[in-house]
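Input:
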Amino acid sequence: DQQVKQNSPSLSVQEGRISILNCDYTNSMFDYFLWYKKYPAEGPTFLISISSIKDKNEDGRFTVFLNKSAKHLSLHIVPSQPGDSAVYFCAADFSGNTPLVFGKGTRLSVIA
Amino acid sequence: DAGVIQSPRHEVTEMGQEVTLRCKPISGHNSLFWYRQTMMRGLELLIYFNNNVPIDDSGMPEDRFSAKMPNASFSTLKIQPSEPRDSAVYFCASLSGNEQFFGPGTRLTVL
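Output:
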């Protein structure tokens, strides 16, 4: 049973437009959420995170929104750039030295 | 720091052979994780260590898989005997705070 779900395996967006990647989770005990970005032939790299005590965190073109009542978070990229084309993984954490729980990823293609 | 180092980057082997994947975590990170990435299942946690001690190996698919961490700077993931369905990318990650830092992965192909 997947605790972190990314229901869209892929997404295509035109350059300059907004990309919205969605993630749902089932375990209300998660208290920290992260987004990782993965290029081909590389390991995932940390992109942005949010604590469960917040509902929004912004870093440049990237904003993560958290809706705890809906157990839903989303990553917004605006404006999207071709270099943003990658697989994006949503991850959740209980805190402490525990492993992150990952979604299956969403492949974003930004078309010039 | 060079980040998490994994070797080899690519491994092609024949069914039945033993495969050993290696990982050097970032110095000072006390937790190390092994993941497997496949199209069907995404990133699956196989096993993780805290202070060189295996904490949870429930993700290890079968007895053919084993992992060790003899010291704070080295870990191995071994598959013996390997099977074609083991073909995947295997990632090692180490932890600082809430953020896991991933190695570049080892792409394993079992023919």
